[in-house]
Write the structure tokens for this entry.
Amino acid sequence: MSTAIAPDRLRRAVASSLAPVRPLLPPARRALLLAPLALATVVAVPALNFFRPDFAELGTLRAWGFSLVEALAGLAIVGLALRESIPGRALSRGAIAAAVAVGLALPLLIYVATASRFDIGVRPQARLYVAAVCFRTSVIAALPALLAAAVLVARALPLRPGVAGALYGLGCGVIADAGLRLFCEFTMPSHVVTAHGGAIVVVMVLGGVIASVGHRR
């Protein structure tokens, strides 16, 4: 008789603990929740520091237009991370590789398309300092969107948190770079690749670490 009563009590205990759960919005719509934050990031980086000296020469399209395109690409990559975080909707390896390739290549393509020359830099004694400033500025600028994306991804219970975290980290790094390019006027490839591209890679790794640690806890 006790064996018959125990399942009934268990069912009642489970039933009493059930509560309605708000369904998740589609990944694209959840990514759009970060759009105001992404726009604020793009504007805040140069506004809180200074606009690059050749900002007027770039023109509206090459300055704001290309930065908005880059920020939208970053949001799209965050949207892929939100899809990856939903059980049963994991991305294929090809899709993940393509997202990473686009996220790393797009800032470089915009840099090549907008630079009139590729030798603008500082004296050798100051190169490390300037690189550190750009690197730090970009990483700090990415943090608000990175934390917001981490909350959105964690709510969906990703089965591969490291992958989801790396994707939203990459997207947030690209968004921050869209603001950084309006602040930094240096075009030396060594500076752009290490300081600007390096910041994107670090934010991508940071996203993977945050998602993995949060998932374990």
Remarks:
- Residues 26-216 form one domain.
- The CA atoms of residues 30 and 44 lie 23 Å apart.
